[in-house]
Amino acid sequence: MDNNNGTTLIVMSGDMDKVMAAFNIAIGAAAADKKTNMFFTFWGMKAIQKGNLTGRGLFGRMIGLMNRGGINRIGPSSFNFGGIGRWMFRQMMKNHNVPSLEELRKTAMELGVKLMPCQMSMEIMEIAREDLIDGVEEPCGVAAMLEKSDQSRQTLFI
Amino acid sequence: MDNNNGTTLIVMSGDMDKVMAAFNIAIGAAAADKKTNMFFTFWGMKAIQKGNLTGRGLFGRMIGLMNRGGINRIGPSSFNFGGIGRWMFRQMMKNHNVPSLEELRKTAMELGVKLMPCQMSMEIMEIAREDLIDGVEEPCGVAAMLEKSDQSRQTLFI
Amino acid sequence: MDNNNGTTLIVMSGDMDKVMAAFNIAIGAAAADKKTNMFFTFWGMKAIQKGNLTGRGLFGRMIGLMNRGGINRIGPSSFNFGGIGRWMFRQMMKNHNVPSLEELRKTAMELGVKLMPCQMSMEIMEIAREDLIDGVEEPCGVAAMLEKSDQSRQTLFI
């Protein structure tokens, strides 16, 4: 496997279906022995946060209220109808034995997928290092993401 | 044309404007003699379904009700105001002689663009093989999509 | 720096957060000496328009009313609650000394990022050449965008 065959995913969306697609692609890439990196930015930060807490300052808490953090609270990007979209989506996934987001994330990490938190997003949204799940990389910026991307065959903006 | 100059489009969105952009890019790539593949997943499945029917089981039918399938029922991703967005958008396209989604899809297929249905999405959304339009490839997974992507100069997540 | 190391960004979204992410990535790429092109299409056109005016014909004006143009009127893609999302987002950015969209755009242009307007979008949305800010490239199509993309290490659809 040469040096330029990696996969880089920039996850900006916090929508359940898109985050799920991102982890599925990452798992497929890692399983194919490609060096795989996911760079989480803006709303995508929810996918690597510990729980419901989003940010610490006033604005961070306001975002937290509007937009409860944590990988289990993410709704799909299309229709949500007061939560029914998420509920239905989960039932469908369960009925078809599709793994949950938490399981997908765990599998990705076990396969060596690197989870990179965006430093600027953490600053703007007032998210601290200890609000993130264990095992993520050091917070970094666009330059570090582009370095991985330059060694990749595909970089997706999700 | 070398082996690594293809174009791969992952179409997850079911929004009319994004699907339209996807077909326009695919047509441009195929016209430039690039091997072009479109992988349809989640809401993007609507773009290669026959009609209004989305799925067969209970959940599939519920999604079908909320989110009428078929390429002519797709609304634009921004503002929709009870369908007025779609109506207006279509009028504007008509006034400017922009081809419809169905025409774009036909042109893409005539130029050799391959339409790949995502097997997992079909299972989750309970969509059968015969619900898809004629001429699509065999349903496949992330691994098959990544193989095409590895032979591509650009892979877009739409 | 070889010929195939550029960065191409296709900006279709008109959401403030996504446009901001696009300019941040473009600035990072240009700062790393990569030839960087941004192709603005559909709602993304707002990011390179002069003011609030969107289009000239009847439909163009209707879109303009629903969807006020201009880089300062763009809301974030998630939650907006009657404008509070945008206000809050801007306050947070200000508090953390994050540059505004206008400043990001200026910086990108100073670093040599090329801004390419999509001709078809201008025709459909009835946007004239003089409605665009100074310093953008000649309006062009998918073929010209793909040419840049073929010389790029990463092409993102935003």
Q: If classified by CATH, what would the architecture of chain A be?
A: 3-Layer(aba) Sandwich
Give the low-confidence spans of chain A. Answer: none
In quaternary terms, these chains amount to: homotrimer
Biggest interface between chains: B-C, 31 and 29 residues
Counting structural domains of chain A, the number is 1
User: What's the alpha carbon Rg of chain A, rounded to whole Å?
Assistant: 15 Å
Give, in order, the helices and strands of chain A: EHEHHHEHHE
Shape of chain A: globular
Would you mind describing this structure in some detail?
Three copies of one chain form a homotrimer. The model of chain A has no long low-confidence stretch (mean pLDDT 83). The two termini of chain A are 25 Å apart. With 158 residues, the first copy, chain A, is α/β, with parallel strands linked by helices. Chain A has a four-stranded parallel sheet with strand order 3-2-1-4, with helices on both faces. Chain A has a single domain (6-73, 100-151), classed as DsrEFH-like (Hypothetical Protein Ychn, Chain: A). Chain A has helices at 16-31, 58-66, 84-95, 101-110, 119-124, 142-150, and strands at 6-11, 36-40, 114-117, 152-157. The first copy, chain A, has six helices and four strands; from the N terminus they run E-H-E-H-H-H-E-H-H-E. The interface between B and C is medium-sized, with 31 and 29 residues.
